[in-house]
Amino acid sequence: MTAPPAPPRARPPAARRRETSDLYATILEVVKRHRGSARITRVSYGAGMPVDRLKVAVDRLVALGLLERQDEGGVVTFEVTARGQEFLTTYWRMRGFIEMFDAPADRFR
Amino acid sequence: MTSQEIPRGGHVRLGRVDGDLTAGPDVTLEPDSGDRIEVTGDVRFRGSATVNGSLQSRGLYAERGTVRVTGDLLVTADLEGERTTFDVGGRVEADTIEVDRELRVRGTVKARAIEIGGELAAGADVTTETIRVGGRLAIAGTLRATEAEVGGEAQLGPVVLETLEAGGRAQIGGGEVRGKVEAGGIFESAGALQFGSLEVGGAVRLGPGSRGGRIEVGGKFDAAGDLTFTDLEVGGLASVGGAGTGDSVEIGGQFVVEGPLTLTGTLEVGGRIRVGQALTARRVEIGGEIRAERAIIRESAEIDGSVSTDAGLRAGRVELGKRSEARGPIAGDTVVLGRKGRAELLIGRRVEVGADARVGSVIGEEVDIGAGADVGSVQYVQRLEMGRGAHTGRPPEKIDRMPPWPV
After folding, report:
1. pTM across the whole model
2. SS3 for B71?
3. Which of B102, B120, B151, B259 has a CA that sits 20 to 30 A from residue B91's CA?
4. Looking at residues B342-364, what average pLDDT do you find?
């Protein structure tokens, strides 16, 4: 006698894939905490990214005008620009909508 | 002064050092007697180091490695780590703490200012004026500070703070943030929280009995029990598990209140609202549906969709939009039902029934029935106007005075 087949397992909800926008928001939030004195190594610890990979992302953010690079006596630091802050505000607002879409539909009853 | 230098890989026993102590990479220090090494000057670690006991010094500077202290780390001036992780088994005290990478402490942390690039994890209370962490902040005890800022995620026990700012997600045990709480993503308080204001991009969950000022949330807001606030503004969905008490509410989507909702000002809901008990407000604007045990509105109620109450809705002026539906009595000084609307009972000093609407009963001092409307019964005190093709189930009845208000 064979054992009855196990009931099919419900698929766990798929984790949201980390988009480029998530990565950029993480970097900008970490830079923001250092108030204009964010060195690349310190940002790498905060964002949990290796420096070489972080440098590519930071260069892109500088090119897009979301980060500003400052060089004072050979010490390079980064600061979030007004446009970078605008991106963060928009990003979190969009995440707010996503939270709303993901909420169960039957809360009203 | 007898400053001391320990070469790379050295394993030495120390008691008291009068002066500075400099150590090369991978050193191990043991207390000579007791459990503490005392350095009257500064300690410099030029790489990883292990201290099997407590260490006390004026300043401590470490670079490129991991510094492990099994006991307490007590520094009267600055504790600094460049590309360094500190792992402390006891407590940490310093004037300022500035660490690039990580600070892990099993005991308490006390400093005037704390700045960590990566992560701070503390197993007990943290007391400081300002704490700034680039990545993650995890504190099992109570965090007492004026300013707390975290770039990534904060997982905290109880807090006593002036301001809290987290880039991503902040979870706290409860407590007090006298000023502003600002979080980009998600903010959760397991216990009751007293707050000045809340500004969160994504979602907020508050423990029962929370109270504070303005709440502004982009996405979703949930309060587990009773909630007291001044203004509640939520872009998407909101719920209050108990009683809601405040000045004004503005919800883009849907609002559920399990207990009563008592507002001194305005309630604006773009979608629908359900209130488990009585709703009280000065003015109400509902884009979709409103359900409540009863609703008492001091000035005006404008509802585009439907109203459903057990005991009725009463306002100074009630305006129900076209094709709207009302279950339960609707009462007001002025009651207006839009075109093709449906209602059970409308009662007011002045009642206007829109064209092609259907109403069970209308009672008013002055009544206007729109063209093509169908009304079961009409009672009026002063005046009745019937539009073309309007129909009543029974002949209209003129009465001497208005009956008592049903709500």
Report:
1. 0.88
2. coil
3. B151
4. 97
